[in-house]
Structures are given as C-alpha cells and as structure tokens.
Structure to design on (529 residues):
C-alpha cells in the first residue's frame, strides 16, 4: 500500500489507460496530462541520475512553478537523489542557511527565482552546482549522459527521500526526511480514514508550495482520490473561489485562511462544487461554517513529522480535534509541572503519537537529537485532554503562560484577539518576570501580545485591552501590547514565537500597569523579517 514506487507506478498505469486525463493543473501556469507528466519525469530522471558526487547527492529546487516541482521531486527520488523544495520567498541569509543546512550538492533554479540566488551566490560554497530550468528543460551542461532507459521503472534500492523543514514556530526549524512510502501514507491519510475516493473525478485544490508538507504530499493526495491536483504558483486568497469553481474542485485544505473564507461567504458561488474542506487551525463554529457553504468540514490536527493524526467531522467546539486515524496510536503523557492543569474533566498532558506505518526521521542526526522521537513514539509538544474518546487541543506546551499560579492558553487568548474587527493576526508569548529560566515549570510570566492590524484599522493598544477585558477574565488580559508591522519568520515562512520571546520591551510596548494614557496611539514596532 505504501510501496516506494507507488506514485510512479500509479502515474504510469493511468498514462497507459487514460493518457489525456489531467494530472496537474497550475491555474496560472502549465498543466500536465498523465502521459506528459510521465514523459517529463522520465526525461529528468535520466539526467539527474547522472549527477556525480559523494553519497548522498542532494538536489534542491528554487522555483515558484509548483507543477514542475511535483514532477521534479519524483524524478529526483526515483533517481536515488534526496530532494528538497526551497521556499521561493526566502532571501539573503535564510536562503543561504536553508541550502547549507540541507547539504545541497545541486540546485535547480528557474528563471523567475534567479534574482534570489544571484544576491547570495558569493556566500555559497564553491562546490554547489547550479542548473537552470528554461521552458521545461534543465541545463545539465558538462554532465555525462549515462544512457539510462527513460521508460524503465526504478529499482527500490534507488529510491531516495525528500527533505522538508518544520515550521519552526516555537524553536529552530528542523529538517525532516520522508521516504516516498511515508509521503504516500501522508497523502492517503491527509483527511483521516474517510474521503479517499471521488468516482466522478474533479479537482483537489492545494495551492501550498511543496516546501510545506501539505504541498509536498499534494500529488499523492490527489492521485489516491481520483482527483486532478489544482495548484497555483502565485497564490492569493482572492483567487480561491474562482480557482475552485473553474476546475470543479471537490476537496481542499484550509490552513490559516479559514476565517477569510468565512468572511467571503456572501461572495461564494451557488451551488458550491466543494464537497469537503479540512481546516487547521480551528474556526469558531465548525457547524455554522459547514451550513454556510453546504459542505462537510473536518477539523485537522497534524505535524510535519507525522502527517494528519487526528480528524473530526463537524466538531461540536473549536477545541475538538477528533480521533486518531487507523495508522496511528495516541496517548496522553502527564506534564511535569508543579501544579498540573485540569480541564475539569481530564487532566491535560502531552500528546504522544506512534505511527503504524512508514515514519519520518530527522535529517541532521539521531531521532532523539531534537527530543521528538523516543522508542518509536513522537512527543508532539502539544497539550491535549481527552473527553468521551475525543482528543481536545489545549495549546502548545511551550506556549502556555504561567501567570499568578494559573496556566493561560495562548490558543484561547489569540482566538479572542483575532476575532476583533481590524485585527489581521496576533501572537501571544510569556514575558518572564522571575529569576527562573523562562521555560522552567515555576517561571512567573506576564502576558504579552504582538498584534498585526489590517490596513485602515485604528486600534490603540489601550482600546484593544479595554475590549478584551469585556471578553476575557482579567487574569488573561495581556499586560503588554506591541502593535507591529510584521512578525519575524522562520525558514518556512511561519511566525517565529521563539524570536518574539527574545524581543525586549521597548518604546513601542504599551504597559497597562503603567496607568491609562488618554488618547494613546502606539507606534508600530518593527519586528519584521
């Protein structure tokens, strides 16, 4: 079921049976039928397999062209070369770090990404080989063509892994290696145990770049469900409904954009061709969301290291993440704290997961190097409780804020702040005010929130806190507020909480305990990339 060549074989079988069926549609670029995709993968594989060098040869691709990236990944891994897709938004030092930390020997760069590379080329190692992609052809000048049969299926021993970086929101981004068999498993269980086939066909809408795990497994997710992968290289939310309707998309995953979809419900087409959406993080009311669009809605919980672990259809509240897929075992381990938290139903602990099929490994060393894998179980670092057999998300272990003897959930607080009109995004951290290290169980912290306002919004820090005091118990109302122009980002483009925790209080930080200041308007603190 999870054989290393399952995707290669599936494309070949479909190309023989229905060569003109669409495999990938790039809404703002190229499209590939099954036959065309098979030919392109085979041609690239023949060249890539001739890349010389010490084992392992690691091929990176820097390009926004998502259709080409999916095929290039199959060509590389089936040529025995480790593959990594580089986020095309990376510039400067983050780009250099991504290439060097990954051990890249060969970089394939498209014309529209060359500016990113040229700005840092002098800082890269002399041994890095750069190959340019032009009109579907990769320039491998100077390499010897070994005369490999392009139509031959690869041997299992030749198949290599892909590498993906975790989001790094709570610490350094970690390089994760996935075998093709693990990618197949991720795609199969992306939406849990159900929703695995659409007899009538249609599209799976996944605009996420393959540098993100959702983009990396999108092709498998589509093929296994008899759907065409529909993607877009320059995605913005305003394209969502037009792309979905034009390509008859039946399924999609909404990551961090569900609230935008909810806000756009008046503009949604009727009838809506979508059958189901997976959502992460939570929305306020799943059932209202499903009724508004006449679709089934799944709560999704997963990680780069694991894939989708928990799902729930139309959960009763936004904490419910559901039950494990059939390929995972889950347990709750007690947290090491001086005063254990409780939901009033079950004690809160850390979610620990054991995959029952192929699993990921960390690329930089032993499984336990980053403290995640222990004896085949992955410690997620997320706080959960269980009620009536359903797992409930209670926040990140590191994101819990210890304030006056209480544990405050950053998840709950951020949900309320984001619900305020004019708030585009926010991040809550604990600002240490005790002599203990900030990550010690008894460290005393004050609540600090970084708020990114939408264009035209006119909130002051004082007004924002006044509104939050109407919605939250007083101990949860932040002491410090920073109105910011952007957030510091990780290699994968996610907000870095670790970097935000390290930002000292400054002139742009509003302290509500310093006393109300009439008419105060806090200048936006610059904490961007």
């Amino acid at each position: 079921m999870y054989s290393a060549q399952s995707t290669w074989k599936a494309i070949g079988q479909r190309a023989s049976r229905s060569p003109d069926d669409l495999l990938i549609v790039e809404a703002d670029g190229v499209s590939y039928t099954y036959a065309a995709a098979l030919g392109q993968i085979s041609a690239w594989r023949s060249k890539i397999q001739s890349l010389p060098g010490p084992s392992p040869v690691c091929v990176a691709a820097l390009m926004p062209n998502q259709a080409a990236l999916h095929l290039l990944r199959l060509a590389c891994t089936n040529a025995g070369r480790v593959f990594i897709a580089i986020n095309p938004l990376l510039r400067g030092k983050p780009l250099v770090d991504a290439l060097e930390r990954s051990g890249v020997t060969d970089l394939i760069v498209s014309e529209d990404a060359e500016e990113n590379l040229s700005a840092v080329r002098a800082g890269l190692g002399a041994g890095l080989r750069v190959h340019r992609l032009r009109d579907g052809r990769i320039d491998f000048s100077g390499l010897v063509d070994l005369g490999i049969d392009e139509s031959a299926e690869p041997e299992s021993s030749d198949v290599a892994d892909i590498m993906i970086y975790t989001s790094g929101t709570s610490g350094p981004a970690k390089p994760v290696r996935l075998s093709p068999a693990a990618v197949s498993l991720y795609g199969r269980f992306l939406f849990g145990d159900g929703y695995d086939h659409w007899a009538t066909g249609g599209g799976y809408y996944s605009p996420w770049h393959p540098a993100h795990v959702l983009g990396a497994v999108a092709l498998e997710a589509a093929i296994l469900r008899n759907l065409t992968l529909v993607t877009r290289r320059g995605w913005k939310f305003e394209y969502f409904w037009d792309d979905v309707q034009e390509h008859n998309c039946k399924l999609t995953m909404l990551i961090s954009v569900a609230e935008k979809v909810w806000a756009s419900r008046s503009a949604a087409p009727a009838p809506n061709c979508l059958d189901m959406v997976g959502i992460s993080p939570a929305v306020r009311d799943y059932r209202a969301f499903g009724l508004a669009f006449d679709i089934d809605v799944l709560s999704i919980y997963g990680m780069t290291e694991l894939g989708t672990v928990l799902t729930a259809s139309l959960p009763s509240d936004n904490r419910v993440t559901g039950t494990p897929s059939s390929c995972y075992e889950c347990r709750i381990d007690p947290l090491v704290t001086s005063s254990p938290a409780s939901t009033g139903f079950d004690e809160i602990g850390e979610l620990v997961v054991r995959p029952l099929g192929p699993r990921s490994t960390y690329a930089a060393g032993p499984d336990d190097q980053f403290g995640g894998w222990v004896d085949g179980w992955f410690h997620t670092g997320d706080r959960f409780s269980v009620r009536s057999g359903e797992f409930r998300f209670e926040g990140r272990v590191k994101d819990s804020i210890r304030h006056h003897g209480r544990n405050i959930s950053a998840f709950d607080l951020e949900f309320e702040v984001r619900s305020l009109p004019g708030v585009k995004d926010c991040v809550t951290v604990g600002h240490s005010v005790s002599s203990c290290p900030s990550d010690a169980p008894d460290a005393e912290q004050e609540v600090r929130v970084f708020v990114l306002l939408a264009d035209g919004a006119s909130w002051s820090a004082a007004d924002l806190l006044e509104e939050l005091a109407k919605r939250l118990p007083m101990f949860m109302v932040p002491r410090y507020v920073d109105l910011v122009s952007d957030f510091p980002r990780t290699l994968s483009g996610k907000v870095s909480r670790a970097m935000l925790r390290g930002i000292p209080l400054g002139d742009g930080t509003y302290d509500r305990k310093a006393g109300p200041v009439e008419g105060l308007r806090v200048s936006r603190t610059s904490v961007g990339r």
Q: What stands out?
A: The radius of gyration is 24 Å. Residues 34-48 form the longest helix (15 residues). The chain has a mean pLDDT of 82. Residues 401-514 form a domain with the GMP Synthetase; Chain A, domain 3 fold (CATH 3.30.300.30).
